[in-house]
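Is adenosine-5'-triphosphate placement plausible here? Inputs below.
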Amino acid sequence: MPGLRAGCYYRYAWQSHKPGFLLTDSIQADHPAPQIIPRSEHNISRADISRHALKVLYRLKDAGYQAFLVGGSVRDLLLGRHPKDFDVATDAHPEDVRALFGNSRLIGRRFRLAHVRFGSEIIEVATFRGLGTEEVASEHREVSAETGRLIRDNVYGSIEEDVWRRDFTANALYYNIADFSIWDFTGGVADIQARRLRIIGDPETRFREDPVRMLRAARFAAKLGFELDPASARIIPQLASLIDGVPPARLFDEFMKLFQSGHALQSYRQLRQYGLFEHLFPTTAAWLGPGTDARGRFLEAALASTDARVAADRPVTPMFLLGVFLWGPVADRAAAQAAQGMSDFQALAVAAADLTREQTERIAVPRRFSIPMREMLQLQIRFDKTRGARALAFLESKRFRAAYDLLLLRAAAGNADAGLAQWWTTLQGLSPEEQRRELGLGRAGPAGRRRRGRGGRRGHGADSVEGDRQPA
Ligand code: ATP
Ligand code: MG
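Reply from A.M.:
I modeled the complex. Tokens:
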């Protein structure tokens, strides 16, 4: 089993303080003791930790268990950032955690975890994972012989073992609720200070065990502005195709973290740089080519606008960026089918449906996003019709806003007629009566008035009323 023995991992020069309990000889031989950074020498204050996380930590400690804050929250607090969530690591087994917290439940198959719920906040409590012996491993941990991927991993252990299965040194710091010190086994604090993203252990082994770590590398480099260690940067492009074997549901989760958290543009650039993007969006990557021309600018403009919305605390929906990614391939395929004699309308509908299906086979986009996304693509042809009741119905339809935002991006990239986009912009600023005149319709009858009733006019740039629309 490659990579699961301590001997496979890098060693560092340790400035070693002993933790507050004795290690067994064998573990001590294999695992260096952590550097323990006392409260007086770091900036993490309990005032910045969620009170629910503190509650969990204290209750575990009071019940006689070890309890640490771990992962991204410790990293973000050290960086002076606001953690997205708080994860706890403990030597208590999941059943023990379950018994301590009435508001908890056990989840996960590959890893068993406890979720402790406080209203909308969930504190994830994970039991330390062990490296295991060969015999234990065969029963509780499974590694695919073919790809080196970790399939199951439910061997419990000590913190000294748990640290080595974490991905990056910056993510492997433990904040001890017993004395508010930080335990650093891998040089994570120094790496954070130097803004280095360094994988723990041998990069190839770790990326084979779990190829999603390559996406995480791109994501943390993007989000934190860290520099990826050179060994990882070299090997990721060679291993990128392992992403093809990752379950589609997991890729959707990663897509959300990469592209809906305020650093979509940087994520995209990192994914491109390491040859990962083409394994998430193969048809988009083929359409894009080198990505340095108008096509690349089209995508980058959409990514930047999503980031601007997140920065302004406005709602974002994954369907918009997913649709932007698919637009180029959809338009090309529709044109090819139209050239074979299919009507433009039919060709676009078929291409949008086919490419949506192909993409969702790779990234499991839930239907509540994929359906409006497909519609947004199919509706692009409706902008060509600028007269009549159909145009009015389109203007008033639920999906108009998202489709219009895509039109604006297309026009800015030279992919749609800028005059036409301007016309639709102007139209939205007119009164209902003026709109009808512009569309060549008579005065509104009572039916027309009733239809328009609910939302009224939609001004250019106004925030959307419904959650599934994302104005660019
Ligand atoms: P975020 O800011 O996105 O929450 P995070 O570092 O907390 O970042 P999580 O996905 O919440 O990331 O995971 C919590 C911790 O679990 C990580 O910091 C890391 O130590 C460990 N971890 C998560 N996923 C992996 C993985 N695929 N391989 C190894 N360790 C992982
Ligand atoms: Mg986290």
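Short version: Residues 1-29, 447-469 have pLDDT under 50 and may be disordered.
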